[in-house]
Specification:
With about 550 residues, this protein is of the alpha+beta class. The protein is about 50% helix and about 15% strand. β12 (about 470-475) and β13 form a beta hairpin. It is flat and about 120 Å long.
């Protein structure tokens, strides 16, 4: 029997499509939507199980009520009751047969259907990496958009349709994940929030002792010894026998005594050090480079503003693709987003129907987006690119072919040597940190395998609106381009001389609220010799 069950499960595993068992759920909202349907199916199965248990209990209850009345009557006059031959027969029958049937009913396991469904669905569940990835995404959003823990905990985010909140247990879990990464700054923030919610009377499965244990250590690691001691004292008031807290308290007191000794000999120096330590506490766990600061400011919409004089040189126009016959009578709308580098946006350039078709083709193929590793020359996943992508060829579907032709007609560039259309869907806090699309001089073999030269230009379709966040930003120049469904932006990565334009370094900001779908076409140098001739100047 065991062998048969094992064989059946093996066959089931073979028959189920392997493509269904997705990994890295947190990197794509599109794939996470499948989990909603999975959970709905499990809830339905659970409700069926509850009904079956209720039906079983109802039968047992009716049996108990019937026998309760019968035994009450029988015990008042046992001999008289059994004097009736039918009662005597029925007593024999009940004890010999019916009680055994009742026993079987009580022992009957009504959970088989639910457990079987759980077993099948479990292979599609997120794993620890997904949970950690989603938690880190919340911390990333918190830093990028300057959100305090209370705002996040209450779900007060811009543009939300379905407001939700974090429980004290959720806050505790975020703090624990930060702790495992030795990120004591975020550990303190989230343990403090968990403690606040518990102090406010929230009923939770976690207790204040556990929260204070993490919180006091995180505070100590950031150099605030006074606060660490205060928190540890509070912990010991709740649990005087807490072994680690007692040990920590002795250690803190020892450190404090040593500091006081040092203070006596060098009072002035210590005063200055104490002031510095006070100003250092509650700071970020690491100092970011200037580019990172610019990037986050641009993501928040706090970037450099163009002077009126520069703005006056930005225009909107009808574009006919340099007198392309297809667009002379029906030109497309084009507007300037930035001057240097020149970034233009095409409006109403891809229809809703085309967007849905592209998403339909891409979704089954979505896999964790990769980056080019300049050291190995191979593609690899990276923590700074949180999305899933798929590649679509013009040969496989007329919609993709039509989109490729449209890009060629409007840019005037040959797309036969371009890379396939890349479709990307961003996950929780999905982002792509500052990067270049073109290969630099220190990466001479970046696109050697393609044999089509460097990436001369980038065309980027926005296939969804994003409620908050998700901008494409250019930290070098201070430009922010915000997603607008049905539009596309275009820029050259190389000067006409073939030299890289380093001002095109750009990033995809984390998605704060919403679901971001984009698709892009990287156009290469080969085939553009007469369409975009080289110039004599290196930077023209």
């Amino acid at each position: 029997m065991v062998f048969t069950m094992a064989w059946c499960l093996l066959v089931l595993g073979v028959l189920l499509p392997s493509s269904y068992a997705h990994t890295d759920f947190f990197t794509s909202i599109g794939h996470m939507t499948d989990l909603i349907n999975t959970e709905k199916d499990l809830v339905t199965s659970l409700k069926d199980y509850i009904k079956a248990e209720e039906s079983k209990l109802e039968q047992i209850k009716k049996w108990a009520e019937k026998l309760d009345k019968l035994t009450d009557t029988a015990t008042k006059d046992p001999e008289g009751f059994l004097g009736h031959p039918v009662n005597a027969f029925k007593l024999m029958k009940r004890l010999n047969t019916e009680w055994s049937e009742l026993e079987n009913l009580v022992l009957k396991d009504m959970s088989d259907g639910f457990i079987s469904n759980m077993t099948i669905q479990r292979q599609y569940f997120p794993n620890d990496e997904d949970q950690t990835g989603a938690a880190k995404a919340l911390l990333r959003l918190q830093d990028t958009y300057n959100l305090d823990t209370d705002t996040l905990s209450k779900g007060n985010l811009p543009g939300v349709k379905h407001k939700t909140f974090l429980t004290a247990e959720d806050c505790f879990e975020l703090g624990k994940i930060a702790y495992t990464e030795s990120d004591y700054y975020h550990t303190e923030l989230w343990m403090q929030q968990a403690l606040k919610q518990l102090d406010d009377g929230e009923v939770s499965s976690i207790d204040k002792v556990s929260v204070l244990d993490y919180l006091s250590y995180a505070v100590y690691q950031q150099g605030d010894l006074d606060k660490a001691m205060t928190l540890t004292k509070r912990l010991l008031e709740l649990d005087p026998e807490h072994q680690r807290a007692n040990g920590n308290m002795k250690y803190f007191e020892y450190i404090m005594a040593k500091e006081k000794e040092a203070n006596k000999s060098v009072a002035k120096t210590d005063d200055k050090a104490e002031e510095e330590s006070k100003t250092q506490k509650m700071g970020p766990s690491k100092s970011y480079p200037p580019e990172r600061q610019k990037y986050e400011m641009l993501c928040r919409g706090e970037g450099l503003k163009m002077t009126p004089r520069r703005q006056s040189k930005l225009f909107c126009r009808y574009h006919d693709g340099n007198r392309n016959p297809k667009y002379i009578l029906g030109p497309v709308k084009q507007e300037d987003e930035w001057d240097k580098p020149r970034i233009v946006r095409f409006l109403e350039i891809i229809s809703d129907e085309e967007i849905e078709k592209v998403k339909e083709l891409a979704k089954p193929r979505l896999s964790r987006a990769t980056v080019h590793d300049p050291q190995t020359g191979k593609l690899t996943t990276a923590h700074y690119r949180v999305s899933k992508s798929a590649w679509l060829s013009g040969y496989e579907n007329p919609t993709v072919a039509r989109i490729n032709t449209r890009i060629e007609d409007l840019t005037g560039l040959d797309v036969s040597t371009a890379e396939e259309l890349q479709v990307a869907n961003y996950g929780v806090g999905g982002q792509y940190e500052p990067h270049f699309d073109f290969g630099r001089k220190d990466e001479p073999d970046a696109f050697k395998e393609l044999g089509t030269g460097n990436r001369i230009a980038t065309w980027l379709f926005y296939m969804s609106d994003v409620a908050a966040g998700g901008a494409t930003v250019f930290p070098e120049v201070g430009a922010s381009v915000w997603p607008r469904k049905g539009t596309a932006v275009f820029w050259y990565n190389l000067f006409p001389s073939g030299e890289g334009d380093y001002s095109t370094r750009h990033a995809a900001c984390p998605v704060l609220v919403g679901n971001k779908w984009v698709s892009n076409k990287w156009i290469h140098e080969r085939g553009q010799e007469f369409r975009r001739p080289c110039s004599l100047s290196e930077f023209e």
